[in-house]
Amino acid sequence: MPLMDLERITDGLSVTWAGYLRDWDRSLRSGNRPETTRYNYVLAAAQLARYLAEHAPDPEADAAAEDPAEVAKAHIEAFQAWMIETRSAATAVNKHKALQQLFKWLMLDEEEIDRSPMERVRLPKAPTKLVPVLEEEATTRLLEVCKGKDFLSLRDQAIIRLFCNTGARLAEVAHLRLEDVDLKTESVTLYGKGGKVRRVRMGARTARALSRYLRARAKRKGADLPNLWLADRGGQALNANGIKIRLKRLGQRAGLDHVHAHRWRHTYAHQWKRAGGDTGDLMLLLGWSSDAMPRHYGASAAAERAQESQVRMGIGDDV
């Protein structure tokens, strides 16, 4: 099933809500928003609609459950509180940001409302969640569980090495096409957020893993597809959600918890900074436009780097 399944997401919503969400998704697609972003945005809006219809204590929420133009500030605040209670503050923050975009679109593009109900709704406070880096031993264990010469093993090895070696996002790796891989220069072209395109180099081991996978891929059903990654059966392309699920299963087999693509991205940033790499170069390689991102990624290992610097400098040792 594709990540973005509008029929499933809007199932059970009022005709008005479902219609708006279809139109909003079309607008997001025309703005070249990534599929993951569109999914998260539309899902948040659908969750608000379902909350208003099924869980809102306000007896006057019925109108808002039928039409997003009737949503008021109090409805949003109650929804956020419910999200914090049933999920987490971090989840509530993500929903808040998505709903800001929905009501901005309703106000500016559709001109269905004069003011956004998000205007005076406070962003929930959430503790900073530090994403731990993946130790090299963990990546080695993952590669061990998919060791082999069969198609699935060769594909999984290439995917894992590409994440580890480039720090690329899940969607960037998932959306690779055959033409994006250049084994002569040992590089791949990645299509990032906001339509940003960048070419990154890969190491010899990653290039070799990709070359072996491509030889196996050429013999498979679906070899004529432009997509780089093929599913194990059916001659279909392997999408981002498929890679996400596969990494989780490989992690379970390796005895590792919370294995996901973004942990390699944090690890890449940490190792780059630890090796004394330039922050500007890191931003170019990982497709960042804000210098706040290098501070966020690898933050869980920042204390370790600081302690290493402290020992190296030896301040106070010569007293």
Automatic annotation (TrEMBL):
Keywords: DNA integration, DNA recombination, DNA-binding. SUPFAM superfamilies: DNA breaking-rejoining enzymes (SSF56349). Residues 15-107 form the Core-binding (CB) domain. Gene3D superfamilies: 1.10.150.130, Intergrase catalytic core. Residues 129-310 form the Tyr recombinase domain. This is Site-specific recombinase XerD.
